[in-house]
User: Fold Class I SAM-dependent methyltransferase from Pelomonas dachongensis.
Amino acid sequence: MTEKAPSIDLAAWLQSPPGRYLLAWEQAQVDAAVVDLFGFNALQLGLPELNGLQANRMPHRWLAGRDLQCEFDALPFESASLDLVLLPHALERACDAHALLREVERVLRPEGRLIVFGLNPASLWGLRQNLGRLRRRSEPYLPSGGEYIGYWRLRDWLKLLSFEVEAARFGLYKPPLRTDAWLDRWQWVEGVGSRWWPVLGAAYFIQAVKRVHGMRMIGLAKKSRAAAKTAPAVALNNHHRNE
Assistant:
């Protein structure tokens, strides 16, 4: 009988030293990105450990799984009704990442923003994970059950759906170590990595905007005023504010 490979739950992994290291970097990135994004309706899909909308000032903010229950590929929002959608590691853990992206494109209004966080398979962390899979008895370094999507591959997907990448960056250049003490010893590599091999960071951030060719900006302005009066209907709660 073949021995089953060890696995790591995502929530448990986020409590580990590398998980906390990842969350700290992503929280800093998303806070800086969303603070000046304006509109009326914002949605975060997945990873409740990341308070992705806390710095945003849109009046209606939802976290799927806490403020509303829904399937990520069948969102309870009207088409073109959201101004911002945040996907922290949702694509790499989705049953069908393409279907999820298409659904996000549907609910975003023209010029709406999409923010994606992902783990980079072309990194030391990704290499360590793959080596762990080859050694079935060894404990994997990263959470189990996810398919890590390459940065350039994701950019191609976004382009096919008429998203234009506005900003992108990589982070987490420390080796795949398991303790705070060893991670702290490698703090110096952050500056070196971001300068000399930026695309090899363990995680990446992408911010994209939904472009609709031929859409007149005056029409967008009218639609925004209408959205201010009526928020899109959702399945459960009214709206959630992250204070």
